[in-house]
Specification:
single chain
């Protein structure tokens, strides 16, 4: 496929992806992509997932795990936190959910960890990041989670979901989930100065490592360039680049030159047909498939890769800080 063919292929997709393609790759008029986004709640993936919400406000009867999960199978992706993440990322308006979903979850949802209240968060940085962003989207009080991220940030700059088990070094995976959730909250509510500073510091943690490498040895993490969608909780250079694009646009700055290695990894992974293929999809029960099996061209991964490369190639670099 030539570039025009690839863009046409991307546009021939579920409304959950199509509106993003129209806005970010095709430069469609705002009225067009907004009209497509409005269809997400009524057609395709968005409509199917909205239909699975229970009368109590939950999905699959649980906060992070389905009520029938016994721990013997891979992590399922059907429970409430994952379902909210998908709907939010697909651009579904909060009003499309059951009335007062935030209140329903306040009354009916408890975390599997120590039965903690849903909007108070728990001890896992990734879960708290998902909940912070979903709370900002649905209008819940997530002020306690904002404070948690400020006080639980580790000395090296990021977060680690295993801190409660004694971890003292930040994790790429925990940190990318955290900064994504914080930016989502900041974009919707304005956040707080303290949380903004925490996000910037954690982004510096990733930039110092050029999104790919151990700071101590310079060794590249073998999983960093892996391509798989849905992203869920996993770190990848592509997912991190997508965050840094969003953060730069929000903060009004250009791309940091320390992203260059990760950009070239993404660029080099393009297939001969102009697409990026699904390589490492996560196992686990889901409501329905939103992307292709391993080995096939992925519309979602191709979209994210093209959006990042378009931003990088079109925007002047900012100077990397010294030291």
């Amino acid at each position: 496929m030539n570039d025009d063919d690839v863009l046409a292929w991307l546009a021939d997709s579920d409304p959950a992806l199509r509106w993003k393609v129209e806005r970010d790759l095709l430069d469609a008029p705002e009225g067009q992509w907004r009209a497509t986004r409005a269809r997400v709640a009524h057609q395709g993936f968005g409509a199917q997932l909205l239909a699975a919400q229970g009368e109590d406000g939950l999905w699959a009867g649980g906060a992070h795990f389905p009520s029938d999960f016994d721990g013997t199978d891979p992590q399922p992706w059907t429970a409430t936190s994952w379902s909210l993440m998908s709907l939010r990322e697909w651009g579904v308006d909060a009003d499309a959910l059951r009335p007062d979903t935030a209140g329903l979850l306040e009354r009916n949802a408890r975390w599997e960890y120590e039965d903690l209240p849903f909007w108070h968060g728990e001890v896992d940085a990734c879960i708290n990041a998902f909940t912070l962003a979903s709370g900002a989207w649905l209008g819940a009080d997530v002020s306690g989670i904002r404070d948690w991220f400020v006080t639980r940030r580790l000395p090296d700059g990021g977060w680690n979901c295993e801190w409660v088990e004694g971890a003292t070094k930040s994790s790429f995976h925990s940190t990318i989930n955290s900064v994504i959730g914080i930016l989502d909250d900041e974009s919707r509510t304005g956040g707080t100065p303290e949380l903004h500073a925490a996000r910037k510091g954690a982004e510096e943690y990733l930039l110092e490592r050029r999104l790919l490498y151990r700071l101590s040895t310079g060794e590249r993490h073998v999983w960093a360039p892996h391509l798989g969608y849905p992203f869920r909780h996993r770190y990848s250079a592509l997912r991190a680049l997508d965050h840094f694009r969003a953060a730069a646009l929000h903060d009004g700055v250009g791309p940091d030159p320390r992203l260059a290695d990760a950009i070239e990894k993404v660029r080099a992974s393009r297939d001969a047909d102009g697409t990026w293929h699904q390589a490492y999809p996560l196992e686990g029960r889901e409501w329905f498939a939103v992307d292709v099996p391993a080995g096939q061209p992925s519309r979602w991964l191709t979209f994210f890769a093209l959006r990042v490369l378009r931003w990088w190639d079109a925007t002047p670099r900012v100077r990397a800080p010294r030291g």
